[in-house]
Input
Amino acid sequence: MTGRPEVLFPLFGALNKLDGIGPKTVQILEPTGVTKPRDILMTLPISGVDRGQRATIRDVVPPTVVTVEVTAGDHFPPQSRGRPYRIHVTDAATTFQLVFFHARGDYLSKLLPTGQRRVVSGKIEAFDSMAQMVHPDHVLRPEDADDIPSFEPVYPLHAGITQKLMWKGTRSALRLAPDLDEWIDPQLMIQHGWPSWLQAMRDAHTPEATADLSPHAVARERLAYDEFFAHQMTLALARAVARRGKGRSSVATNTLQSKVLSALPYAPTVAQTRAVAEITDDLAAPIRMNRLLQGDVGSGKTLVALMALLVVVEAGGQGVMMAPTEILARQHLEGLQPLATDAGVALELLTGRDKGREREAKLARLASGEIQILVGTHAVFQKGVEFADLRLAVIDEQHRFGVAQRMELGAKGDAVDVLVMTATPIPRSLSLAQYGDMDVSVLDEKPPGRTPVQTALVSTKRLDEVVEKLRRAVAEGKQAYWVCPLVEESEFLDMTAAEERFKHLRAALGEGMVGIVHGQMPPAEKDAAMARFVAGDTKVLVATTVIEVGVNVPNASIMMIERAETFGLAQLHQLRGRVGRGAAASTCLLLFQDPMSETGKRRLEILRETEDGFRISEEDLAMRGAGDVIGTAQSGVPRFRIADLERQTALMQIAQKDARKLLHDDPKLETERGKAARTALWLMEQDKAIRLISVG
Output
């Protein structure tokens, strides 16, 4: 199946073939992503209106929607321009008015002739103690009353699009929808009680009660599963293609790893040992590694990454570690250098700053294999950077790449193994959506020597008290961070800027005790201020969030976060992770300003309750939603039309399992179910996945 299956042609035809949709409507719908019948089918109702018929309006409390049979009475055309046209009508128990603005009398005489019975449906309101219905949504003969759904779906609208139009368009698209062969595992269908795809579509567009609009309603669950399944099929195919790609076996000899381990002042955690074993097995296998190393702040990812890099060096190859910024690349270098020296391994740094002869000399040593491990920024993948035998790329993914970019990276060397590290604990659902093509190792415990951080909430009203305590702590030789939300004072936002706080603390603590770093400083100044703090020359560092991913200062044991309620949960957690790195008891003070919003309060309470980054990330997701948590545009996380990542995580897990199993049993998708799965990929517009099938 090289092209779209014929059975899907009607759903991918012209939108204006649908009832009620002309060329003008096509233009209006285009910006919403609705360009063909398939898209309107995938736009499900967001709520519903009860239009069950009643005998009389007397029993309802306005304003509310009512459907009732009436006898049309006298017509009262407007006496002057701009006034409404009124028609008195009587139901089984009372009289009320139908009101029309800018209506033609001859049209209304035909629609509601005096003395004739009609079924009307619309919103009843009270006006001047009289009940009225302005512009009924439906006016029908009693024999046609069945055309009004007892529970009417309400669709998401866009300027220029009416409910009537969406109703007509979706009914017309449903008539085009084919009955497709089943791509879901039959056992799974029985287990969940799911209908066929076509039936699920019909049920989702014709809800009978509010419960049918829930993500857990059977029809919607089935359709959400289809989206997850198609997405996981794409990831599983990407994974299969990457694994089918000729891998290289790099077998550990343990000569270098053992040197590093014996030089460590502590034993690695169980989680670190487990992750190293998983990676070592992957590297020894003849298939390409594509693994994610996920760990919280301070969980010891750098050691795991080094152990992985040492495996390929032991096997006679080279490794590279890539960081998103120069400051982080230098930090990795500082962390790895002593351990690499213990092992007798040649480690170098390459950034955009390297110029001229120095750069050329580095590149020559790299090309000859003299440099065994290279640390750097994206510069390591520029033209002219040649490795003698690159086997492993470790990517510190501060800025996440999508699947496509990861696949491109793997193509840079001859069957390069890829290990992606992320310091942001990712909720399970997002991890599955974003990294479903990868095997995952999780570091879920902290190395010994990391002291828990005491977290307290303090009102900004007690600022003088806080500064006095800080002065005493500094006198005892302690170091502290003070994080501010803005760099300069703003007339619009009532937040203390870093510059102002710096002046205030300098006056309170004395000259030379306080340093400052923020994103608007020249890099050299920033580095110098950081270096003075690392050396212990300055005791307090006033900073903006640039230190979220900053250097490691074990002596810093106090973290002040001003106007903490304005920061995101993940950001607060990352900032808190800057302290607690040494043996001293550490404190994080969250300074808030009253009155706080409920969400602000909830965020700070969660942070006070736990240091578990994974729990924090789940809470963050629940509070903000997937798009906000990870910035969907840059993240490689897909946008689903029906599925709800936050509320349907379990489905995503099932879909991943099912997709991987299907591809394992039927790698070319040639069985009946395999062919149906191809149709599902076309239906869900997973064109990339379809290309990958042929790659295999």
Remarks:
- The chain is about 40% helix and 20% strand.
- Confidence is low (pLDDT under 50) at residues 625-636.
- The first helix runs from residue 23 to 29.
